[in-house]
Backbone:
């Protein structure tokens, strides 16, 4: 009966969503696309896992963010020991998992004559588990993102499964209250891990260095955890699909799981949920309780990366039918971006305000970066038109791109510093997006990147998201050895600091970096961090040597 009601409710919500699309659709097939997206929902593969042991927290200034765990006694025989005596235990599941937690209260002596109250804290990192959460920092993301549950149990000797999906490695169980005359134990602890990822389709060359093997493995596990019913950005927090993460996940997927159906589903989800009045894509979408966007969340830089994802999908699959279906969506995103390009061929961020995300780095002036991102998106989308044989529709685009490149060079390049300056600011981010756009020659781009990386005053990337484009820019400039070393130092740095999945934010010089001002809310398994597997396998002669 419960299953029937759940399905019925989902159908009602789906019908409501379809009805809303039918009332106003910029693209005539949005209603059909939404139904296709529902039909393409993948099956999640399940694996049941158990803790590998108990651990004890150790405050250690040499450890990442000041905390580490060491093994201790307590897990063996726990199912037959009174938890009134144990009171608190932290369990290590051995690696990062996403899914659903189950346990049982087992009666040992006498009968239950009062409720049991437990606090369960799930965490991805030792520091997350040991940093006090209260008082919660003002202005930070919701405290509700912390994976903390207070349970009041009134029935024993039956399985208890938490309804909330967890993303974690460590679990702390703390006794808050119980009858003093009743003895009980915690038994049947297990975790049902879920992912739509199956087998990895690629392999490293024999003799690949150990650090490359480790980075490759952690990249794959990061992507696996984020592959749910769509490509999530971080299974601990947000539980949504972002366009920028999707593009990077599609690159990593091409050199690992090769789940093209999931990429295709995500492309249709965004198209189906585009703004019905002007066709712009929302920056992110949710699936529960029905597919819907975060309304009014427009991100021009991300919207153009939708087109890059579609181009990558074409190259991976040769599926021109889907590309033709979604071509109007891709073309519309470029048209919207070009609206803000002035007569001087410089993108004016004030003309049509939009969130133009480049990186989480305080103080970054993104003006030059956005100019580069628009040129990059324009040329990527023209490549789709070439694949579809419809360049006549957009024949002016190559000329516009060329004029935007010349304008960018005149506006932003500073001969004195040998860098592209964004309103006078030097940053690695500006150099890499000018390179991605093809504004400088390979020689000039390499010099600009080296100048910014060596400058004490130039801002550096604060996330693996931005670092992906830095490595890509290095490769475009022929800086192969430097790209190799940067990847090994950056992502290898996370591995050496204990990462079993790659993190949302990482600065080798600042272990406490957080876009939110509070590290426990950071995601330690984040989609935009998974791309080393792409570099390692696309360029084996560079990264597997």
Residues:
């Amino acid at each position: 009966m419960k299953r029937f009601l759940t399905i019925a409710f989902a159908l009602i919500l789906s019908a409501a969503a379809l009805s809303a699309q039918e009332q106003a659709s910029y693209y005539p097939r949005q209603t059909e696309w939404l139904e296709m997206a529902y039909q393409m929902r993948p099956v999640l593969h399940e694996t049941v896992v158990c803790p590998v042991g108990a651990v004890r927290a150790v405050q250690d200034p040499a450890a990442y963010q000041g905390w580490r765990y060491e093994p201790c006694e307590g897990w063996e025989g726990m199912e037959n020991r009174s938890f009134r005596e144990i009171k608190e235990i932290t369990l290590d599941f051995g690696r990062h998992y996403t899914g659903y937690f189950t346990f049982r209260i087992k009666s040992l002596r006498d009968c239950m004559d009062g409720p049991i109250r437990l606090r369960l804290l799930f965490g991805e990192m030792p520091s997350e588990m040991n940093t006090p959460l209260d008082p919660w920092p003002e202005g930070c993301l919701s405290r509700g993102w912390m994976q903390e549950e207070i349970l009041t149990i009134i029935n024993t000797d039956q399985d208890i499964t938490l309804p909330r999906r967890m993303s974690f490695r460590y679990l702390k169980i703390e006794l808050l209250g119980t009858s003093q005359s009743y003895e009980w134990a915690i038994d049947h602890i297990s975790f049902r891990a879920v992912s739509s990822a199956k087998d990895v389709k690629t392999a490293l060359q024999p003799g690949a260095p150990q650090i490359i093997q480790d980075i490759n493995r952690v990249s794959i596990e990061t992507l696996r955890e984020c592959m749910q019913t769509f490509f999530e950005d971080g299974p601990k927090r947000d539980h949504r699909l972002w366009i920028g993460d999707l593009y990077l996940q599609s690159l990593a997927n091409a050199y690992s799981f090769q789940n093209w159906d999931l990429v295709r589903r995500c492309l249709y989800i965004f198209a189906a949920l585009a703004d019905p009045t002007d066709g712009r894509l929302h920056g992110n979408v949710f699936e529960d309780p029905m597919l819907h966007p975060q309304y009014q969340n427009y991100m021009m830089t991300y919207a153009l990366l939708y087109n890059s994802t579609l181009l990558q999908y074409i190259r991976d699959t040769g599926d021109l039918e889907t590309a033709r279906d979604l071509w109007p969506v891709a073309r519309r995103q470029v048209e919207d971006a070009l609206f803000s390009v002035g007569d001087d061929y410089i993108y004016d961020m004030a003309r049509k305000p939009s969130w133009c995300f480049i990186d989480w780095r305080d103080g970054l002036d993104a003006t030059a970066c956005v100019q580069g991102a628009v040129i990059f998106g324009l040329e990527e989308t023209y490549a789709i038109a070439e694949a579809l044989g419809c360049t006549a529709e957009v024949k002016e685009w190559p000329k516009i791109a060329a004029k935007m490149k010349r304008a960018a060079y005149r506006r932003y390049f500073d001969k004195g510093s040998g860098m592209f300056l964004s309103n006078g600011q030097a940053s690695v981010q500006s150099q890499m997006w000018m390179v991605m756009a093809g504004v400088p020659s390979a020689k000039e781009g390499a010099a600009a990147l080296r100048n910014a990386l060596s400058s004490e005053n130039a801002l550096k990337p604060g996330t693996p998201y931005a670092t992906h484009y830095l490595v890509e820019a290095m490769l475009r400039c022929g800086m192969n050895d430097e790209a190799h070393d940067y990847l090994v130092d950056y992502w290898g740095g996370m591995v050496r600091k204990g990462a079993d999945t790659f993190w949302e934010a990482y600065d080798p010089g600042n272990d406490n970096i957080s876009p939110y001002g509070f590290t426990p809310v950071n995601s330690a398994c984040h989609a935009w961090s998974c791309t080393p597997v792409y570099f390692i396998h696309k360029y084996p002669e560079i990264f597997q040597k």
User: Anything to note?
Assistant: The radius of gyration is 25 Å.
